[in-house]
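Lab notebook, page 48
Experiment: co-folding of the full assembly
Goal: obtain a model of how the components sit together before planning crosslinking
Operator: M.T.
Materials (sequences as entered):
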Amino acid sequence: MIESHMETQTQTHSQTRNALLERLSEPERRALFPSIELVEISPKEVVYAPRQALKYAYFPETCVMSKITVLEDGTEIEAATIGNEGMVGVPIILAAIDMPSKIVCQIGGTAWKVPAEELMQAMETNPEFSLVLKKYAQALFELLAQGTACNRLHTIEQRCARWLLSTHDRVEGDTFSLTHEFLATMLGVRRPGVSLVAKSLQDNGLVSYKHGRMTITNRHGLEGISCECYAAVRDNYGRLI
Amino acid sequence: MIESHMETQTQTHSQTRNALLERLSEPERRALFPSIELVEISPKEVVYAPRQALKYAYFPETCVMSKITVLEDGTEIEAATIGNEGMVGVPIILAAIDMPSKIVCQIGGTAWKVPAEELMQAMETNPEFSLVLKKYAQALFELLAQGTACNRLHTIEQRCARWLLSTHDRVEGDTFSLTHEFLATMLGVRRPGVSLVAKSLQDNGLVSYKHGRMTITNRHGLEGISCECYAAVRDNYGRLI
DNA sequence: CTTAGTTTGTTCGCTACCGAACAGACCGCA
DNA sequence: TGCGGTCTGTTCGGTAGCGAACAAACTAAG
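Observation: model returned without errors.
Model output:
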């Protein structure tokens, strides 16, 4: 449905709006991924539950997903944000059939869905694309390493700003759906903690929000508030890809 | 020097005491890694500074290394522990020429040193070994994801116990060199915080220490104190390798 | 054995954040 | 237009851990 809709609007998928897929020409994409499919993913949708078989990789276009660590008591906390700059399913290229993490959709939107076998086959047949995916895996690897430091050493405000910036980078426009409750879970803090910070950001004109809609009104200001982790991760990605 | 010493003691290196290298037969190892070398690494030695060219991979035998995230203000904090179960240099197999993290030796000992080119070549020529390294990369990947949650949500005591257990797994015997100061840096906390916890562990007979020497006296007890992250990471490694 | 350097013990006041709870505001739906 | 559910504002007391500082214990080297 979405597929045919897009067909008429774009040049028969010559644009994927995903940084990794864009490294392939349209004929290469068609050849490597005969079963590729554009799907719509809804907010809160669980794309992969822990230990669920990794049958597909997803290359986000306009959606944003999160890699979530789930603890025994059910507590969830975000480990990584994945959007149009990357892919869900790095473990597939590392020969895993499943993973302990959970993948949840943060911000609804579209993503390209590719069967795991086709992805693995593509790694074999196309060395250039294989290289791109490996470098993305490396970027994600170092993102997680930065996250361990960030979660331990930075304040809610800093991490909140970081999260807003990296989500803003991945969505269209300046407004997206986001509740304090949800952000609190992602950051691993209490909801009132986020509310307090959010109010302060709004009072300072950096963001504006109302009942589940967040708008970034001053990116530059947020960058000043954010911890260095935002820039560190972005720059490392830029160096690699 | 170490090389010739070992030659006389072991069956000409038929035993590597590294879980990953052990997946190769001795002839395979000789063929794949003509330049492999057993080296001694000293405590506190910086094996890789941030952004230093990744010329060698290291497969620890008796040493224990740490992947460290370095922040702009110079603060350091451990992201992962690497010992005889794994390797230093996963980014090499992900086509990186360097990385933002730092690699430091925690506990001195021996490691097998392999030129990056030989490792990359081995990935090409030996699919089974390539698979093992990919799976280890995946294990490390999920270890970092667990670490983001752990650093945010678990107490000093829990993380302290986790660290002691995972180091204990990687060294010979129950005693190793470790100061509170050093452990505090690894965990990203103050030194008195560690001293307090350490004293409590000692009072409860779980460990015993004096002036830079730590002895694990009750592993089982430590496992009870530790957060779930120790077991989660260990089990995930076990499933993969 | 002495001394200098390292390691550990312990204290202080302070702050960020927690867990819980409740009130008010907003929004979609009947 | 009102009602019920969702979202945000705000408060409370409590605690884990911070930063700084200093004292005591140990150990190695001369």
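Interpretation: Residues 155-156, 189-190, 192-193, 210-212 of chain B lie near DNA strand D (CB under 10 Å from a C1').
Next step: discuss with group before ordering constructs.
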